[in-house]
Design brief:
Blueprint (H helix, E strand, L loop, with lengths): L2 E8 L5 E9 L19 H4 L10 E4 L7
Parallel strand pairs: 1-3
Antiparallel strand pairs: 1-2
Length: 68
């Protein structure tokens, strides 16, 4: 299913902060959010995925230590 991929920066204290995101298209004709899903799908509510995952993989990136 389609999802958002969130990129995060990991701070010196250990917490992560989102710095960017992108939609990842699953390319499924049975996913309402995919570009491959047909417009006007007559059985969409009963046959197609109706929700998009809010977050998927978090990819921490190197971040300079931020003193508190």
């Amino acid at each position: 299913m389609c999802h958002r991929q969130v990129q995060c920066a990991r701070h010196g204290c250990g917490h992560e902060e989102p710095i960017g995101d992108a939609k990842v298209d699953c390319q499924s004709s049975q996913c309402r959010y995919s570009a491959a899903h047909p417009r006007g799908c007559p059985t969409c509510p009963s046959t197609c995925v109706q929700w998009c995952v809010a977050h998927s993989m978090s990819k921490p990136t190197d971040c300079n230590f931020v003193p508190h």
